[in-house]
Amino acid sequence: MTDRLDPAGRHAIGTCTCCTPDPPDRRLTCAGESSGPLSGAEQGPKARVENTLLRAIMPKAETRRAFLRAVGGATASAALAEVFPVATAVEAVAQGAPLEKKKLAVGFIPITCATPIIMAAPLGFYAKQGLDVEVVKTAGWAVVRDKTMNKENDAAHMLAA
């Protein structure tokens, strides 16, 4: 079975930029290198923060691209700065402060869409980010909500429409 996270694996199954007409991340090449000017290593903290904000506000790539084509990057940057403290976020990113909390409890309902939350622990994804995560199975959505509100859970699995 081909590893989808391995750069060579992406090429083998046709999910890299050279094989896919509209890949989810246009900046990844077969070698796993960034092909665009927005790679993490090349862009400064301000550009990373702005890029993250735009992706959070407009998760659909088509919408985001149309917006940037219509108004331009400088106008988008100025608009973000008007509604979000970009400078403060850039300072926080640039400082590289230690994690606020390393031991977390994450509540979930045992359904298929919770698989990434559940499997991240045994696969070591949480540990790789310096987190000690306890994944807590709960009986229903109301229990997840109540445990989160009572601060028994630091995060919770949820469905989004």
Helix content: 40-55%
Order of helices and strands: HHHHHEHHEHE
Physical arrangement of strands within the biggest beta sheet? 2-1-3
Mean pLDDT: 78
- What's the Cα radius of gyration? 19 Å
Number of domain modules: 2
Q: What is the structural class?
A: mainly alpha
How much strand content do the residues show?
Answer: 5-15%
Count of helix runs: 8
Low-confidence stretches: 26-42
Shape: globular
Tell me the span between the first and last alpha carbons: 32 Å
Question: How would you classify the quaternary structure?
Answer: single chain
Number of strand elements: 3
Main beta-sheet strand count, sense and barrel state: 3 strands, parallel
Topology:
Layout (H helix, E strand, L loop, with lengths): L6 H7 L31 H13 L3 H11 L1 H11 L2 H10 L7 E6 L6 H6 L4 H4 L3 E6 L3 H9 L5 E2 L5
Helix pairs in contact: 2-5, 3-4
Outline the structure in words:
This protein has eight helices and three strands. The protein has helices spanning 7-13, 45-57, 61-71, 73-83, 86-95, 115-120, 125-128, 141-149; strands at residues 103-108, 132-137, 155-156. α2 crosses α5 (86-95) and α3 (61-71) packs across α4 (73-83). The protein is globular. Residues 26-42 have low confidence and may be disordered.
